[in-house]
Design goal:
The complex is a heterodimer of chains A (703) and B (214). Chain A has 18 helices and 23 strands. Chain A is an alpha+beta fold and 703 residues long. Chain A has 4 domains: 35-182, Thiol:disulfide interchange protein DsbD, N-terminal domain (Immunoglobulin-like), CATH 2.60.40.1250; 186-287, Immunoglobulin-like (Sandwich), CATH 2.60.40; 293-570, no CATH class; 580-702, 3-Layer(aba) Sandwich (Glutaredoxin), CATH 3.40.30.10. In chain A, strands 11, 12, 13, 14, 15, 16, 17 and 18 form an 8-stranded mixed sheet that branches. In chain A, strand 12 (191-195) and strand 13 form a beta hairpin. In chain A, helix 6 runs antiparallel to helix 12 (547-570), helix 8 packs antiparallel against helix 9 and helix 16 (631-640) runs parallel beside helix 18 (692-702). With 214 residues, chain B is α/β, with parallel strands linked by helices. Chain B has one domain (32-210): Glutaredoxin, CATH 3.40.30.10. Chain B has 6 helices and 9 strands. In chain B, strands 5-4-3-7-8 form a 5-stranded mixed sheet. A two-stranded antiparallel sheet of chain B has the order 1-2. Classes of the chains: A alpha+beta (703), B alpha/beta (214).
Chain lengths: 703, 214
Amino acid sequence: MTSWRRRFAFIVVLLAGIAVLLGTPGPARAAEPKVRVELLSEVASIVPGETFWLALRQEIAPGWHTYWMNPGDSGEPPRIEWSLPKGFTAGDFVWPPPERIAVGPAMTYGYSNGVVLPVAVTAPRDLVPGTRLALRGQASWIVCEKICIPEEAPLALTLPVGAGPAQLDAASAPLIAAARRSVPAPSPWPASFTATSDTVTLTVAARGLAADRVAEVWFYPARWGAIEQAAPQRVSISPDAVTLAVARGPLPEAVSAPIDGVLVVAERLDASVSRQAFTVRAEPRALDGGANALSILRALVLALAGGVVLNLMPCVLPVLSMKAFGLVQHASERPAALRLHGITYTAGVLASFAVVAGVLLALRAGGEQLGWGFQLQSPVFVTLLALVLFAVALSLSGVIVIGSRWSGAGQALASRAGYAGSFFTGALATVAATPCTAPFMGVAVGYAVTQPWLTALLVFEALGLGLALPFLLLTLAPAWRRLLPAPGPWMTRVQQLLAFPLYASVAWLVWVVSQQAGSPGVAAALAGLVLIAFAAWLHGLVRDSARLKRRVTSVIALALVVAAVALGAIASPGSAARTAGSAATKSDGWEPFSPARLAQLRAAGTPVFVNITAAWCLTCLVNERVALRTPAVEDVFARKGVVMLKADWTRRDPVITQVLGTFGRNGVPLYLLYPAGGATREPAVLPQILSERILIDATKEVL
Amino acid sequence: MIELALTRRTFLAGTSLAVIAQRLVSGTSAWAAPGAKVGTTAPVFTIDATTGKHVSLADYKGQLVVLEWTNHDCPYVRKHYDSGNMQALQKEATGQGVVWLTLISSSPGTQGFVTAGQADELTTTRKASPTAVLLDPTGAVGKMYGATNTPHMYVVDKAGLLVYAGAIDDRPTTRRSDVQGAQNYVREALQAVSAGQPVKTPVTRAYGCTVKYS
């Protein structure tokens, strides 16, 4: 073998040996820690008795990660065992929002690259300025890539005790401040969840999130077990809430307690994505409990039932009676004609509901905070409604027979004007129904306005269909008409009698105007009523006169009506008495509601009853009369120290509308009973129809 | 002309439509939670033991079975083996007639993957006493049970029902000293089932290293 050959062989062997050595992983190589840690201090000196921030800073090797407070399906959060000088106390870490790290079928939550975990530390009062103190601790953590390595390191920091105000540490303070800024803030929105055997549905009543701007939403549970952490979270965003549906976790008892966690919402901005993190405590809620848990089907059924009940409301019943009497009179007429009447009436109701819903949704889309009955927040509308109902009442009293056709009584139902009349009656019934809230309705409407417009419209139309249904069925099913009583003179009496609920409604509406627009508004409304009465008299006077005379008088009567309406319109929205409402509420034990006052009372642990009401809400007024202002209830409230707050929604009030929205509602009344104790305790939502018993039992239950 | 007649048939059709609509609206998750559910029948598997024999869970019907997912290099596993905690539990259980199956789901080339010979050697050197060590390099059995960690522990009762799934104890750390005084969920489950009582803590969060699936 030549020497160069020998040399070559030697080099090959050498290189191979080096390669083998380099390529062999093993304990021979010194273990380089995957995480470098450092103890940071926000302050350059300690002030006796003050709380300051320290932080554990982790710099993590690329590809590796450490863990969040809930590490997820694997891993472990870092910890510090402190050896602080006597009298010092350290809190827990506050945690910046984590990242999701999926590992096979498992999901873990943690940090890569690096993280700063702040800890609040309180110094004792008896420190001597000028001395230097060593703050020590032992940090331990687990760091994982594919494999996991437990690591630990001693921490130490020496700080002087200062006499004056603390000086910030120029290098560390900004790091800690940034970390604390990124720590999730308490969510301003209430949250709740429902659980089925396989799904947990979380609803956060976050308003104003635009679905097309939201890049991502993820809920990080604070504890393991309630939800499958690796499962996809199906997110839906409406203007009023974010809903996440996720597979239920393996821990059965986890869904009977509130689910805490962090909701991270990534919002697309023009050129970047902004991540907001909120702490969320979702309260468990029975599946059929509230509006947000409603399926569309349930909402539709509730709306339909609410619509049917609306027929019995004092403002609607008289209007309908005219229709019903027409039916009794003509029960024997051609079924086809009757059916057509039923259908046009229904069309009238549905069209009016579509208009109401359309306006409501359009205004809401424009950012207005409105709800059912919103039109009644306008004194102009209330005045107009009073005028219309007054005219109808006069007609029922027999003072006038408006057109003598659309009311149907005594006229050929089959005439074309009769069909228009049926349609108009439908519209009138809808208008007359707006001040009334029937049972079931509140929940359905509250649900509707949180939904996309098509769903919302469907719910409103279901409500309308419910309103139209009794009459529609009577006209459609000939057999049922046999149940109607025989026509006779009794009908005139009943009709006249039914005028009185309408007069009462008018009186009440005028009172509502007095609340909204003060005495000028009332004056205008009353003058309008006089004009309507005069026009009605004129109309009746010339009914049987010559055609020309009739025409002229009709024009005059019409002019009077227009004048009346104009008066109503002038009745200055919001001129006088703007403050009358809130000033008046301070009396009789009720304090005016404001979120600040509520928060203040809650913080003090005081039990609070919140009554969200409006002057134009009949149900509300009845509840106050029969339940809220009874000696028994007042006595219980007084003994338990319940502070009574009244939120008056008579006029438009975005703050109150928002409160309603957070409880899935969109109309009044809403009654909330906040228990004594911690500010985090959720209120009991009482039924919309109250009784003494309900109030007293509820009070005893939560206090 | 529309004639509204609520017959039984239209009513039924209506309700079934309603049911379908509800299904559509509420929607069911396409994502199935992986793994075995406590309170249901434990999934039956058949795989190779280190002895080369096929072992099936069905072979042990009528006996209590413990399943232990392991990875000998995982620091959490080492905590329980280096302290002798796992071996003590194995001895105690098998001494009472409990079947103890140790499963290794690390895929080839990942941490914890061993050949049959290496696995038996580990059993000898660590003085472990499982009934059998089962090799699951494809991860099929691990995924069937939803094992996410090493150690990850399961208890199957004599009727084949899964009665416990989760951690070995309540101290999710790698510190050996934490073994002392920890609440051992597996021991509790075995004692409860032997006494004919329900398991008090049937589900816990397993802690450890992730299972090294491929």
